[in-house]
## 1
Amino acid sequence: MADHVITTNLADDSEAARILQAQRRRHIIGATIRYGILFAVGLIMLYPLIWLVGASFKTNSEIFAGPGFIPDSPTIAGYVQGWQTSTPYTFGRFFWNTFLIVIPKIIGTAISCTAVAYGFARFDFPGKKILFASLIATLLLPNVVTRIPQYLLFRDLGWLDSFLPLWVPSAFAGDAFFVFMLVQFLRAIPRDMEEAARVDGASTWQVLVFIVVPLLTPALISVCLFQFMWTMNDFLGPLIYISSVDKFPVSLALKLSIDTTEAFEWNRILAMSVLTILPALTVFFVAQKYFIEGISAGGVKG
Amino acid sequence: MSGDHRFLGLLYLSPYIIGLLVFTALPFLASFYLSFTDYNLMSTPTFVGIANYAKLLTADRTFKKSLSITLFYVFTTVPLKLAFALFIAVILNYKLKFINFFRTAFYVPSILGGSIAIAVMWRYLFADVGIVNMALQGIGFEPVNWFGDPTNALFTITLLRLWQFGSAMVIFLAALQSIDKSLYEAASIDGAGKFATFWHITMPLITPVIFFNLIMQMVQAFQEFNGPYIITQGGPLKSTYLLPLYIYEAAFKRFDMGYASAIAWVLFAIIMVLTLIAFWSSRHWVYYAGDKRS
Amino acid sequence: MARLQLRNLEKDYGGFKAVHGINLEVADGEFMVLVGPSGCAKSTTLRMIAGLERVTGGEIRIGDSLVNDKAPGERGIAMVFQNYALYPHMKVRKNLSFGLRLKRRPKEEIEQATHDVSNILEIGDYLERLPKQLSGGQAQRVAVGRALIKKPQVFLFDEPLSNLDAKLRASMRVRITDLHKQLKADGLQSTVVYVTHDQTEAMTMGDRICVMKEGRIMQVADPVKLYNRPANAFVAGFIGSPEMNLIDSKLDGRSLKIGGKVLELDDEMLSRLQPRGTDVTLGVRPQHFAVVGVDVANALDGRVSHVEFMGHEVYLYIRVEGQQVIAVVPANHYDRGKINGDAIRLAPQAGSAHLFDRASGENISLSNQA
Amino acid sequence: MARLQLRNLEKDYGGFKAVHGINLEVADGEFMVLVGPSGCAKSTTLRMIAGLERVTGGEIRIGDSLVNDKAPGERGIAMVFQNYALYPHMKVRKNLSFGLRLKRRPKEEIEQATHDVSNILEIGDYLERLPKQLSGGQAQRVAVGRALIKKPQVFLFDEPLSNLDAKLRASMRVRITDLHKQLKADGLQSTVVYVTHDQTEAMTMGDRICVMKEGRIMQVADPVKLYNRPANAFVAGFIGSPEMNLIDSKLDGRSLKIGGKVLELDDEMLSRLQPRGTDVTLGVRPQHFAVVGVDVANALDGRVSHVEFMGHEVYLYIRVEGQQVIAVVPANHYDRGKINGDAIRLAPQAGSAHLFDRASGENISLSNQA
Amino acid sequence: SNLRMSWWGGDSRHKATQVALKACGDKYGHTIAAEFTGWDGHLEKVTTQIAGGTEADIMQINWPWLPLFSINGDGFADLNQYKDIIDLSQWTKDDLAAGTMNGKLNGLSVSTTGRVFMFNKTALDKAGVAIPKTWDELFAAAKTLKTKVGPEAYPMNAVKETAVLLISLYTTQNTGKDLVDQKAKKVAWSAEELAKGIDFYGKLVKEGVVQTQKSVASEGNLNLFESPKWADGRISGSYEWDSTFSKYADPLKGQKLEPVSILKNTDAKTEGVYRKPSMVFSISKRSKDPKAAAQILNCLLNEPEGINAMGTARGLPASKIAAKTLIDGGKIEPEIVAANAIIMNGTGPTVSPLNEHPEVRAVFIDTLEEYAYGQIKSQEAAEAIIDGVNAVLKKF
Ligand SMILES: Nc1ncnc2c1ncn2[C@@H]1O[C@H](COP(=O)(O)OP(=O)(O)OP(=O)(O)O)[C@@H](O)[C@H]1O
Ligand SMILES: Nc1ncnc2c1ncn2[C@@H]1O[C@H](COP(=O)(O)OP(=O)(O)OP(=O)(O)O)[C@@H](O)[C@H]1O
Ligand SMILES: [Mg+2]
Ligand SMILES: [Mg+2]
């Protein structure tokens, strides 16, 4: 072996060692600053959540007595009373109703938005630009003013006091945001796999089901999560379209007893808020890997 | 796919097209029509031509004030939020331990954002004896009158939005991670420091997502409703009276749906124009990598 | 029957004409390589055959049936993509059998086929892996397997080796041609259209090579003929490494003027020459230059500008009358350090030079041999 | 002074030791190529020199000053990246001048420098283009220009040609070495460290070549020596194309046993042999096999399994005693169709064979020449 | 037949009303679907339903909404048509008038409510302050509190609506007139009169009787009953709806809250009590079976099944028989009875529902806020309010 043994001189060696040490120190300081910022910001971010959970175990009078989140005398009264509700139904019923809305809505959204995004991203056809523009335009108009006309529409369809108005439009790719998002994702995915499947004998529909959907899974998880959270939180829609209490979803049930001219029990409301957020949080924690990767993978490449 | 029939794509769009025709187009056009009417919700709308718009643009002082507040809000909140989201994303882009924890922590507020409990809590955080003021006093500042002072109140709403920077951050993070590391290395060999690298390399390369986030955040900010509605009720002195709140009150407090529609369409036009300007200007500042095939 | 025919095939990308009515016939069992510089529409042509790109003019026939309007899956073709395009969410086994499963073949048949193919390609050990767990070469074989399992009438390959490193590329090259021969020997249909821009692949793999340029076919021939008797300057320059020296010259009766130099044409050359005009291009492969002493007449003087040592041979970059010329000489004949900048004298080997018409690029020194 | 010295340089990637204390000295103005298989730490070494990777042990000196702790921008180096790493959002002009602008040099100076560099590299026409509007070769030249404009003491290249197609690679190779010579002639500092895994580049470009393997240096020598006198089996196999045939054999006094065959060693070989044990590897370059008739003694019998036509030469893949052997023979001697599957007899050329100790890999047939 | 009834409210109201509906439904053989929500969004819901013609048969309507939905009296069924079913004699003429729009009885007052003063007796006692009976005593109480307890002690609370009503009260006391002159469709007060009222509010602030708007707002727009300052007695008095008495009493925890008759000065022309139906029950004009709805309405308000089930979920009932039944049955806390008595016995001009028209309120509150923030003088404020209110009134 051809070696180049250069006799190393000791002074140089110690100089190099000193430099190494200094580098290590700088490295540690930099890391400390970064972690410091992150933890501080992280705490600020999470504080409200922590407070919310803590406060839901407080008594009513304590909730507004100080900014801390540890209850002096913890109570689960909020949960017990909240669960019972003032209606003939327990909160469980309202959760059930929510799922009756959320499940078809999510499924419908996932299916329709995927198909539509596929259509936009992978095909050329006359009128594509205009249709895409209409998609964006629907994002821009404040929906306060379309509420009444929409109500009249659903009245004429005979859908009032049913869950239909709450999920059917979404099942027809009514949530432009998701379509837009999925189109962006699809644009970032190379088409070769789909072409390979076409050559393998798949119809475009089979390509969508067997190839595109699996590839889109992370993005679809994000879509479902968003839709899930938004639907859980949506209050005005159910308020207007649902009249019968037995059909209330949780978002509405949460506000059921808040009459601003009357005292109401915050710990009960907070307790139920916690329960309401819980499914979304659970889903998020379980799916967070896919969720964030999903967004990352698709990125928004121009 | 390119080998297929010209109209096959429309087949996949059919859910959207049906939905558009059945559920979206009618209410959309109806509201446009209503903006030319006098409609109090009880009686049938009567056509009044451009009267609503005329009044709106000439005689309505509240509209002017609300519009200027809205513009101010949008033009402060959006850049702040984008900057903050970007800042944190840049930090998270370093190889870090607990990265999942941080990403989750920073993302959680975006999930909770819609909950009323949060709005209620916000009122509490920024109260005169709230935790924010306590913290300020703790580090030697005067407490701030957040909700009572017209110059501050809007800021609390801005902060509520900033707090929900997570979704924008995640998108930035994705973009940052897709930047070719060798560009940073090339820059460091060219003698660029951290700041120069960020300014000359990172920023230009993520302009597409800055642009995307800009549009999305702008659209959202222009439609900000919950914050002022729940937290400040538009006050004090209408300093948080954003246009969506005004539209809402015109429609459901004053039962002037025609007028509300007119405001909404003016707002629509403004967002549209700004979006178009953004799209147009993007040619000059957004760098698209652009793929070769169509 | 798995003959493939392209008749006046055209492709118009909304205004931009990528393929200008090409005609090509690939015989049953033939290994046809499409080669040409980037952007010459190799992929476009292949994708039209596959049905991935709409045909805007002409016909494609596979085994005599017109397939212009058939879906890709119904054409009896299989395709291997440049980056393999394996389905990332399916294990190798599923990747292989996807096509058969789509056709709802019986389970046993699918298993048998998977087994057979993985035996042939020696990928049996990876059947339960995901594509991302494969190395480049393994992934490449799976991609071939996915095509093979369908027993297609025509195989299409789009630069399947270009993502591999040089060593692997060399060994995969051998594997694919061996596989083709083996299939043929087994009596299986195996008409192949193979796209590459690498002329080494083209030369070593193809039964015939179709050289394309800007959406047109320049020559279709077997490798030896293509190498020895290029139809035009383009093909001559494209095939061979280092590329053929193309030297601007003037034809003047029996002699060739190159700058100030004059080269007498020998009888052999004159016998095959069919001159069109005086502006011609002399084509001599680098390997066909001999370095000669001053005593040899009819040679070109130049100056070495650059030398590349390649182990067993040396590339000499020489400036002759303002034009760059390359000569390849055995390494043991030359002393690297010395020659750089030196004067040198080159003589084209008899019988191996070509003359091309400058305007059309056509080889005007072929005719008599045809 | 732009000598570059690495002393006991180490790199530890949190537990995984990528570089095991290497020592290397690159003289002022020298063109040093680092070559080796993927993962052998070529890039890591280069990046430590550049300051992009923290040094975890040992020293780096550029022009005698210790630079371990200096920022990349302060080391007086310039680097050309594998994918060029051109700033995609800046026009070529800005790409070139970015470093100077950061240093707030006067406008005229920047313009002059840009002008000079674009003249040298002939990229003046593209100054107003974005990188994505450049072809591979153009982009490559811009990347070099960006390095050049800084007048660095040391140039670093990390596989700058690997993204180019074969033709372009060949011409860029020439361009870069010419440029290096020109700069040297102009009296400019131009010490170069050039990383590649392509042995053709290594052979043709380097004044000296440093062959690496798994974070260690295997041999540092000039190309001719490396090719003709590889220090070990690794270097022998790595350098040369197609690679040297390494045939397992047993040394038995004056003869070599290969499977059932026996090969007598000639005197020349015996004179340089310094045997260590009986397990040896016979190394013969494909070009150094002669195809001989049955009458020739001392040759190996085999069967051709595959033939590749390469234009002026043919690669024969031959199975000899269960081992794969490649021989390269001139194309005009062989008829392609016939030979496949045929028996063949190969004789190593006298004086060109090597013997390596099987255990250590060391070349045991060099010693007397040293 | 099948009917629907909609209302908003809190838990106790939801429970009580459902029981009452069941009882009354059983009695008349109707089934009544209950549609109830919290306060938030209820107006939108009803509005949307009315715009869509899908409102419930029986609706709980906020009194100020009457002119919004039915300025001509044709927004709801005219209950006069069902006087053989509903015993209208249980209501006072005032109550019926309050529910009448354009001569049509659009809603039946469910309960009468009004603003009363309430003081935290415990807190005032501690400072040695007697419960004020006049404005002057209120000012004096403020002075004493400041010295005895500290600068953070206030004997009264006035923000937003409460401030408006305090000013209205003072001005009504001075002029003997309500803000709205319903006949003339304009403001009854002159600018000077209103300005005086506003100055009075200014004085309340300046002398530390009430907190500044700015400092109230800084607390985060909390309701008074959520405020720690109220709970611990630093704010020891307010001017609130009598029906909400318990809500303010509850957080005090052992301290005694006392309803107090209207404060006034000796030269007041009237007590100026602000009295109104808290809410009305209306029947949809589109009801398929308005007679059945009327039966249920009468049952809820006038018949023992409804009365006993409903209890005081909507305050002390306006229906005489209901009030009597409950008081006799001891179902009402004495403080609420006392507070209500103050309202019922007080004197004052009839209050127009237009006082609480959202736009009228908005103009008043917004302009007052500008005054409170020192942006305009009281005279300007008064003029602005009068102009603004007149502009709204013109539409009716
Ligand atoms: N979808 C398209 N729309 C418009 N032009 C296209 C499209 N696809 C390809 N082209 C153009 O058609 C020509 C042929 O492209 P093609 O991809 O077939 O070339 P290629 O020979 O495969 O090149 P490469 O070796 O780079 O793969 C090119 O000029 C290309 O720019
Ligand atoms: N950041 C890192 N962390 C851990 N290991 C690393 C890192 N970077 C490189 N390595 C490892 O160090 C070794 C040397 O890598 P390096 O990139 O220097 O090889 P190379 O010779 O440049 O290979 P190639 O020819 O593929 O570019 C490899 O085994 C690699 O896996
Ligand atoms: Mg191609
Ligand atoms: Mg490398």
## 2
Amino acid sequence: MNQQQQNLFRFLVALGDDSVVLSHRLSEWCSNGPYLEEDIALGNVALDYIGRARMFYQYACEVEGKGRTEDDIAYFRNEREYTNLLIHELPINDFAFTMVRQFFVDVFYCEYLKQLMNSSDETIAAIAAKAVKESRYHLKRSEPWIRQLAEGTDESLRRIKDALLELENFVGELFLMSDWEQSLVEQGIAVDRAKLQKDWDAYVQKFLGESNVHFPDSQLQIRGGREGIHTEHLGHMLSEMQYIQRTMPGLQW
Amino acid sequence: MNQQQQNLFRFLVALGDDSVVLSHRLSEWCSNGPYLEEDIALGNVALDYIGRARMFYQYACEVEGKGRTEDDIAYFRNEREYTNLLIHELPINDFAFTMVRQFFVDVFYCEYLKQLMNSSDETIAAIAAKAVKESRYHLKRSEPWIRQLAEGTDESLRRIKDALLELENFVGELFLMSDWEQSLVEQGIAVDRAKLQKDWDAYVQKFLGESNVHFPDSQLQIRGGREGIHTEHLGHMLSEMQYIQRTMPGLQW
Amino acid sequence: MQSVDSAAEQAEFDRKIAEEQKIEPTDWMPDDYRKNLIRQMSQHAHSEVIGMQPEGNWITRAPTLRRKAVLLAKVQDEAGHGLYLYSATETLGISRSELIDALQTGKAKYASIFNYPTLSWADVGAIGWLVDGAAIVNQISLQRTSYGPYSRAMIRICKEESFHQRQGYEIMYALAKGTPEQKQMAQDAMNRFWWPSLMMFGPHDSESAHSGRSMKWKIKRQSNDDLRQKFIDQTVPQIEVLGLEMPDPEIKWNEERGHYDSGEINWEEFYQVINGSGPCNHQRIKHHKAAHDNGEWVREAVRAYRAKQNQKAAESAA
Amino acid sequence: MQSVDSAAEQAEFDRKIAEEQKIEPTDWMPDDYRKNLIRQMSQHAHSEVIGMQPEGNWITRAPTLRRKAVLLAKVQDEAGHGLYLYSATETLGISRSELIDALQTGKAKYASIFNYPTLSWADVGAIGWLVDGAAIVNQISLQRTSYGPYSRAMIRICKEESFHQRQGYEIMYALAKGTPEQKQMAQDAMNRFWWPSLMMFGPHDSESAHSGRSMKWKIKRQSNDDLRQKFIDQTVPQIEVLGLEMPDPEIKWNEERGHYDSGEINWEEFYQVINGSGPCNHQRIKHHKAAHDNGEWVREAVRAYRAKQNQKAAESAA
């Protein structure tokens, strides 16, 4: 791979990692939701993200051209090699946390993927076109939940506020550009995340403000996901997720 | 190995499994206890059980004579190959559950190991002699805890009762003899677990009764550990415990 | 007057049953028919819901992304079946929260097979193949059940279940044709789930407490033993295709009967597990309760939010 | 009168300090001396306790039984140091629950290095080797601190810490001499923990807020920069033995100074992490609070039990 291909590969794996890690967290709600209906709904979101991960990884493997598969990428890298942004890997915590995180990434992806549809790379544009529809649908679910919990009981409001506090430091990384991502932006392949931040802040603050909940401007505080510097949660997730493949590598399942 | 050696090997691995699995659970309390003093105390119990596991496994490897090590036994068998009795693998739950389980196994091991000191196998007798002292010490810690929690607040009593309910079906397996263990008893190597049950029941009931807590006669209800039929909890424990070895097998650490 | 009406209604009900017409929620029905249906349908619904746990246990450890997606989708379908069956049961005049309460307090049962643990990835295959397979045999028969909403639920559910069964078999096939270690996993899983699958059809016809009346009312359409035989007959050739050893050494084709003969079920185990001594009975209900309790604040918040919205609407209307 | 007394006491205190005598709990001491000690000693205690988390994170994943036992024992020792230092701090007239409250509300600090995550098994080695190594350099110096209980705590703790440091180095050595992948783990862990270890000695002497007074009172005995240099000088040859690349390309022996030169620390990061923006600040305190809150019912039960026992004793005495 030349430098450009390497950057593209890195980009695709990173987006795949974001998706696979979030899908894993969402799947942990299975049989644990507050309503049976929510088990199904969160499962649907998880399935959408697994689908994204597979598309990004498959294309990454194609770009790499070494015959690796999506599962090689997902199951045979350790936490220092995973490059997801940290917000995706945080434990599911309570339902409020899961929904606030989802609301945050839904707002982000609705705009990010919309712009990514203009990628000069047709495969990426096609993935984005499929995924943006999913994220719009996700947002239509996460917003009413935030509203109901923020304006429900004292306890639900407290939990929303705890979730905001917990997530505050992890939002900024969504908008952090690295050199290699910047060079993909210049080639018309990727999207400049940094430019999305202002609108994201405005949207989120307006929405939360309508329920009288305050959220400060997103600031970049905790970073490292793209360089494989994670929270301590990811390693535990991977030890479970990868156990079978690590135990019996190279087989058909 | 002839049949007798096979039985002996199986016996040693089973006792090692009991110890390694319980030690793992106890170690999960590290930095999570109700007092810093308890973190230390539970860590001590965990260390004693790791020590037992290592002694049993090491001797098992010697008996097997294939050059395997304690870590080969601990890190390269899956949940169907682990043969610990199920009571040892149950999640730590709350502090009441952990202490009731500990009290139950402490009472059991104090008698079991005392008798195992008479094993015709000198190595086993020596391990038992060391371990029984530890268990007596453990019991001196677990008993006052049961007393304090049972006679503390309504909440602590409720938690003790929940723990008893949770453990009720797992106690009987401690006293379950298999054919191969029976044949080791006949050779003077092992101890007849079944014969310990009556005294165990009497001791536990008397002790709990002094705090006005009722516990029914231990019945054999859930069984399977010695045949590798476990609760669903063990697999998750092993995926974490074995992750490094499964990922990078055969190395020095 | 009442008894004349009642006699007429009973006659009308009997006529419908005799003529294979469906009974609908608004129709008159005997009390015991209603109770029997509630028992059977809610048990069916609870089985779907509790069944999410043993398979859900492997979602986070599925060996490939594709398998993970398929498994997650399957468990979701079960949740969907649960919902659908709860709704169908509610047409009989009982609420979902009453049904859930009956489950959690042990008054209502669920399929005993979910009290066995899933101990390897192959168990996911075995459940899809054998447990869903046994369920389908039962459910196909229930498509002709006399209560309309239940019958329609069965028709809808059967389609998805056959899909699940194929996926389960596909997992078993991949393992059975894989390495010796994988094949061993498949064999072990089948061995463990075989007998509990046979037990899913319930006691022998001679021992079955509810069967006679249920057959009369056409709630049940075929006997436990007939359905069990059907399942064995369709499954044994599949075992042969997998190339696994038979889980029961007595399985043997009986030319004369035109069926497979097989060994006797360990009914003692069956009743033990039904009565609460299965390896996971306690865990399953505890898990269900914990999830339900942890969600209470969410449901409370939703109620509070709706009440506030209603109040606002009322105020602005006034 | 008070001021006469006070002046005499101050003179006596100053004499002791000048003559290298220890100040003991019952001795008179200036308020600021006491406050300064409470700040420093409790920070030290909290560091031991919070330090249990990053290493504890690998107990359940340690690669061998021996390593697991050694790591568990080490983390226990840290808990023990925490206890010992809390007791020593309590001699200054503050309670353990006040100290814990100050930690949880962010009023008291702990070593900033524990706000970095442990991301591989090698990190356990790096922490033992570098973090405990840096701590020892500091603690050896503090063995001569002017407050008696603190000095004695340091003497006791230093012994165990050197043991831990050797164990950490042993882990690093096994990795550095292992496969390329293992060596890479070791290199990566050292690279990540090197700079935070240097930061452990605090700001440059010219920037250090509390240093001047602490030195005057002989609470501190050597300056931040001197201790840091000592740590670098002893550690660089150990890196060479491991055969790893230097974590700082500017490290170079300076013949003239008789010390290693090294690059400048990123102080911006230092202050960011101290002020709460490290990767794990929030997690560490959250974990501590959660464990503390989860244990509240236990402590309550103990109090209730003791009260009942006391009452019984009183009744039987009456």
